[in-house]
Specification:
The strands form five sheets. The chain has a five-stranded antiparallel sheet with strand order 10-9-12-16-14, with no helix packed on it. 3% of the residues lie in helices and 38% in strands. By secondary structure, it is mostly beta strands. It is built from two helices and 18 strands. The chain is globular, with a radius of gyration of 19 Å.
Length: 310
């Protein structure tokens, strides 16, 4: 979230303050006291008071803690609709949490439910949390309504509203104003549509068999808005949703300029293996540098739906 905005900073139900992106600089590597000792009584408030922040950074621990949902901010699409961008902060430094969609992981209103992750990784190496993992698209006349993401852990509900009502929460989308940087262009199919920015591109379903690798190929390039940008494009793969583990032959790739600058972009292939049958979404994240995440730019998400049979 834009750290300059305090008057509408979300907080969790149960009174846990949920802090803005800029506050993450203060993360300490030391262990905190038990989480229960840090929590005020439940208040059911979702919005922090003036001067408060979105979350308290003092309860990092190896395991046993919750996942905090984050509202990053909003940006406008060319057609007049808006994207509400959400990320998350797993306070555990080692424990991976799986929270299936349902009573412990849901979005209100229900019409927007189903795009959120169900697989939550600890704090990533070299970063502070997981930024802009998904967006919810709302219409041009959305007005003062809220889209609320709720996560429940050990009887407590952590929720955050996405909203348009404050201009301080406006983020950059896919181009960094005043800087020679924009989000990479990503395709999930060779001749398919391209995506750019946190909303990215969605494709599939691809069909696979449990236990057998399936080849997945994406194409990545740049849009030419900043022709002097010759930096590599970085790719990372994640299990976004799904009932079981997913193995990736490579979790990360770096695409140099002489590769991504060819017509149509660079083709990057990996093998994904799904241990259990079911419906999955795997996410590929295309970005320039980790540093840009703190300024809510410049990355692109790709969501590939995969149906896995026996």
């Amino acid at each position: 979230m834009n750290g300059s905005s305090r008057e509408e900073a979300p907080r969790a139900a149960g009174g846990i303050a949920l802090g803005p992106s800029a506050a993450l600089i203060a993360i300490a590597a030391t262990l905190a006291p038990p989480l229960e000792a840090q929590l005020p009584r439940a208040s059911q408030q979702r919005v922090a008071e003036p001067g408060e922040t979105q979350f308290n950074l003092d309860f990092l621990r190896p395991s046993g803690g919750p996942v905090i949902p984050i509202f990053e901010g909003w940006y406008r699409n060319p057609d007049g609709s808006y994207e509400l961008s959400f990320g998350y902060f797993n306070v555990n430094t080692e424990e991976v949490l799986d929270i299936p969609q349902g009573q412990d992981n849901f979005i209100e209103p229900a019409m927007y439910d189903g795009v959120q992750p169900t697989h939550f990784l600890p704090v990533p190496d070299g970063d502070r949390r997981h930024w802009g993992v998904f967006t919810v698209t709302v219409p041009a006349d959305f007005g003062n309504q809220d889209v609320v993401w709720n996560l429940r852990h050990e009887g407590r509900t952590y929720s955050v509203p996405g909203r348009l009502r404050s201009p301080h929460y406006q983020i950059n989308g896919w181009t960094f104003p005043g800087k020679a940087s924009s989000s990479p262009v990503l395709r999930l199919e060779a001749d398919g549509a391209a995506g750019q920015g946190p909303a990215g591109i969605t494709s599939g379903p691809v069909h696979a068999t449990a236990g057998r690798p399936v080849r997945v190929t994406v194409r990545v390039g740049r849009d030419g808005v900043f022709p002097d940008d010759r930096r590599p494009v970085n790719l990372k793969w994640f299990r976004h949703r799904g009932p079981g583990p997913v193995g990736f032959s490579e979790r990360e790739a770096e695409v140099p300029a002489d590769a991504w600058s060819v017509e149509g972009g660079a083709a990057v292939s990996i093998d994904a293996t799904f241990n259990e049958p079911g419906s999955y979404v795997i996410r590929v994240l295309a970005y320039n540098t980790i540093r840009e995440f703190e300024f809510q730019c410049c990355w692109t998400n790709g969501y590939l739906h995969v149906e896995v049979g026996r």
